[in-house]
Design a protein that fits this description.
The protein has 6 helices and 19 strands.
């Protein structure tokens, strides 16, 4: 399998839940509000023998009128139309902003027009009910009743090689993915396992729905992944987008 990180840049985020660009070379984290977290925003493409998978969709920012997600795909030789499946861990705005793109008259369309989108139904319902600032519902409301959406209910397997599991860690209906092909396993823990350093330490985050559960899951995944040489994908890690256990 081929792994392609699609970095959208480095940001700080504080209790306002607003993502503010951060220049590692020139900006000073101490000058940001107290409690600011420094994070990368980084969807992934995973190319398998069956699919060109997109895992989460980034912030949904536009650059010169083009969706940044599209720019990043095209820069790596992939057209948005080539994506066959979009796997969504959850619908927080930094993961779901690129689900759709808006046309010149304000209508939203799926950003990967030929893909199937895999979304937990209860996550969608909760997101629509909760709204801003964690969720920007306009960006993913297009999913509702769309024929290309596969609504998931609990745990399961997609096409006999992608396993998904609701963890209820970072958010109530957050899910993680294992992509297994031949002897390879790619693991995406979303915001349950967003950074390499968190895998190596006992860390409970106040911003998680169930921080203790996240910590315990990370320990379990880290031990199993190192034993079986998983490829870990880290959505919010500035230095290490993926790591082979």
């Amino acid at each position: 399998m081929t792994i392609i990180p699609l970095s959208e840049g480095t940001f700080t985020i504080d209790k306002t839940k607003i993502f503010v660009p951060f220049d590692i070379e020139n900006d000073d984290l101490q000058q940001r509000p107290i409690g600011s977290l420094l994070v990368e925003v980084q969807p992934f493409v995973v190319i398998t023998s069956k699919d060109i998978l997109l895992i989460d969709t980034g912030l949904g920012f536009s650059v010169n009128g083009q969706l940044q997600l599209h720019q990043n795909l095209i820069a790596r030789g992939i057209q948005p139309e080539q994506i066959t499946k979009v796997l969504m861990s959850h619908l927080h705005k930094d993961h779901a902003g690129g689900v759709s793109k808006r046309d010149t008259i304000g209508n939203y369309h799926l950003s990967c027009p030929n893909a199937k989108y895999y979304v937990q139904k209860k996550e969608f319902e909760l997101a629509m009910e909760t709204g801003y600032p964690s969720y920007i519902t306009d960006e993913f409301a297009v999913l509702e009743n769309h024929p290309q959406v596969v609504w998931m209910d609990g745990n399961g397997i997609i096409d006999n090689y992608i396993r998904y599991e609701i963890t209820g860690g970072h958010s109530r209906f957050h899910q993680v993915f294992w992509i297994k092909e031949n002897n390879e396993v790619v693991f995406f823990g979303g915001d349950d396992a967003p950074q390499l350093q968190q895998m190596k330490s006992k860390f409970v985050a106040k911003y998680d729905f169930d921080g203790k559960k996240c910590m315990e899951l990370r320990q379990t995944w880290w031990n199993e992944g190192n034993t079986h040489h998983w490829k870990f994908l880290f959505y919010h890690d500035i230095k290490t987008p993926f790591f082979i256990g």
